[in-house]
From TrEMBL:
<protein>
    <recommendedName>
        <fullName>Transcription factor domain-containing protein</fullName>
    </recommendedName>
</protein>
<keyword id="KW-0804">Transcription</keyword>
<keyword id="KW-0805">Transcription regulation</keyword>
<keyword id="KW-0539">Nucleus</keyword>
<keyword id="KW-0479">Metal-binding</keyword>
<dbReference type="GO" id="GO:0046872">
    <property type="term" value="F:metal ion binding"/>
</dbReference>
<keyword id="KW-0862">Zinc</keyword>
Length: 573
């Protein structure tokens, strides 16, 4: 498959089945288990509220005396339940309850895709009379005030046929089946490059046959899905015996002739010297000796994607410990093993960053975001944050609240907040359109980290306005005797940041960029202002280039982030 190795997530071409509202993709994180598309059962139809923390049943008796009370958390649940993809109907609700968040007109959304991808229908097309009956059914159950809206926005016959055809096509392109077939066919075990090399005297037919090959795009895609959905990776780097990707110029070649010209222009034409992907994890310094035969960005993305497995193994071990019926601190050996897994995963990530920076001089934004995202996952369980928000019910929420309360008092919470801030910093850089989706997911997870840190931490708010300029910040420091300077978690690694990471009770902030204004500082304890700033950043990242446009995803996440901020101010303060 030409172009299989790609340093970035590629956009679907006209031949790829496109679902404008992919439920399995949108249902990552805290959006709940609401659709049969995800493979889970139906959502709970009953509504419930978290009881007060003081009344919760702790597994080992009364709650600790220093456990803070955050009041009734039902508003926090509502913030997640109001998400379009997690909306659960209650008694008295009707089909128009979520009208404000529905896409206004499918015809407008899909017109470009329908024009670019003429349909070859795998089934009998829908008749016009069938569409008329569907419209009639909608009008029957609606009020007269909605007639005009229904008639104006109901999908056209072409749109209905397009959606049905795409749905049927998607059934044959499900990710699991694709991965299993690739694994069984041996595409993960190609070994060192031993294929025919291009020659000057090759004929067009011979050159065309040499040009075709399959890359390691599967590993990158599976890692992105695992990060987004917080689920087990489907592909492990230990089974990837394919060689590292060759020079980018070879993969960007538009024809076999261009491919040959790019190969002959390389200083290092020994593609057989490219090591296997799985052998690089024991010695990253191998990358420094491959010269221009290596596509550094693609190789870096592949290696980082494989390193996610180390982080996942640590997270699974922590999850097993936290769900154990035994006391958390009785098994010393288990604690040492978990700690060693964390140190190993972090050490390998930092070693790779050091070698890659030495190789290329700097780390690309997509690699840096993936690097910081994995480091953040080492210090926070986003699954627990989801459960606290009401994803799995009251029992799970009661179970994870003591865990997260204990977590926020330790250094791990500040480390997670620091890496979340670094994700914000990376996302402000100029990004290509093909990086937009992965950055949106990383931003959303970073917002959850800062949200839970803000609502559960006991760090007092600094005596200054929520938003203040850098000049005013220094004045307020002098005015507030005994106050330590703010650590900017989305800034450079400074001594102030190191103090924040090491000393409990240190205060931190973020610096959202505002046009036509001096840089401002948002204290991290002001959840509403911080979440509003992140929501604005989410919109900005999605609107930079019209080539990548997924309003249903970004709008839904933006509303959820804003609601979480408002809920934190109303309930937890």
């Amino acid at each position: 498959m030409h172009g299989g190795i790609n340093g970035e997530v590629t956009q679907p071409g006209p031949e790829v089945a496109l679902n404008p509202m992919p439920m399995d993709f949108l249902n990552f994180g805290l959006l709940g288990e609401t659709s049969s598309h995800t493979g889970f059962g139906p959502s709970r139809e009953s509504s419930w509220c978290y009881p007060s923390t003081a009344w919760q049943k702790y597994p080992h008796g009364e709650p600790p005396a220093d456990t803070p009370s955050h009041g009734n958390l039902s508003d926090g649940e509502d913030a997640f339940r109001q998400s379009l993809w997690s909306w659960t109907p209650r008694e008295g609700d009707h089909w128009r309850s979520q009208t404000a968040e529905l896409i206004p007109c499918l015809d407008d959304l899909l017109s470009d895709y329908i024009a670019q991808s003429p349909q070859t229908y795998a089934c009998i097309p829908i008749l016009a009379s069938t569409r008329h009956r569907l419209v009639s059914m909608m009008l029957t159950v609606s009020g007269e005030g909605n007639y005009e809206r229904i008639m104006a926005t109901f999908p056209s016959l072409a749109t209905l046929n397009y959606l049905l055809s795409k749905d049927l096509q998607c059934r044959s392109m499900e990710l699991h089946s694709w991965i299993h077939m690739a694994r069984r066919a041996g595409f993960f075990q190609l070994g060192p490059f031993d294929g025919p090399l291009p020659r000057v005297d090759d004929s067009s037919d011979t050159l065309e046959m040499k040009w075709q090959t399959l890359g390691i795009h599967i590993l990158n895609v599976c890692t992105q899905f695992s990060l987004a959905l917080v689920m087990t990776p489907l592909v492990k780097y230990t089974e990837m015996s394919v060689p590292l990707p060759a020079a980018r110029s070879l993969w960007d070649a538009s024809s076999a002739e261009a491919w040959r010209s790019a190969y002959l222009a390389l200083e290092n034409q020994s593609l057989a010297s490219l090591p296997q992907l799985r052998t690089c994890y024991s010695n990253f310094a191998t990358l420094l000796h491959l010269g221009d035969a290596l596509d550094a960005p693609s190789a870096g993305l592949a290696i980082l994607s494989g390193l996610w497995m180390n982080v996942w193994q640590y997270k699974e071990r922590v999850k097993a410990r936290n769900t154990s019926t035994e006391t958390l601190h009785t098994n010393t050996n288990s604690a040492l093993i978990i700690q060693s897994l964390q140190h190993e995963a972090r050490g390998v990530l930092e070693d790779f960053k050091s070698v890659y920076t030495q190789l290329t001089g700097t780390m690309e934004p997509n690699l840096l975001a993936l690097h910081e995202q994995q480091l953040m996952h080492l210090y926070i369980s986003l699954e627990d944050v989801q459960y606290l928000g009401g994803k799995a019910g009251e029992v799970e929420a009661r179970r994870v609240l003591p865990l997260l309360t204990r977590w926020v008092k330790g250094r791990a919470s500040r480390q997670a907040a620091w890496h979340a801030g670094q994700i914000l910093r990376v996302s402000r850089q100029e990004l290509g359109p093909t990086l937009r989706a992965s950055i949106i997911i990383a931003l959303y997870h970073a917002s959850l980290t800062l949200w839970v840190y803000s609502i559960l931490s006991d760090v007092p708010s600094v005596d200054m306005p929520i938003a203040t300029s850098q000049r005013q910040l220094h004045q307020n420091r002098d005015h507030c005797a005994g106050r330590e300077p703010l650590a900017l978690v989305d800034g450079e690694d400074t001594p102030v940041v190191q103090r924040f990471l090491l000393v409990p009770g240190a205060i931190a902030a973020i610096t959202p960029s505002v046009e036509d204004m001096q840089p401002i500082v948002l204290h991290i304890s002001h959840a509403s202002a911080v979440m509003t700033a992140i929501a604005t950043l989410l919109r900005d990242r999605s609107e930079l280039n019209a080539y990548w446009d997924c309003p249903s995803l970004v709008d839904n996440l933006t509303r959820l982030v804003e609601r979480l901020g408002r809920t934190a101010e109303r309930v937890y303060r």
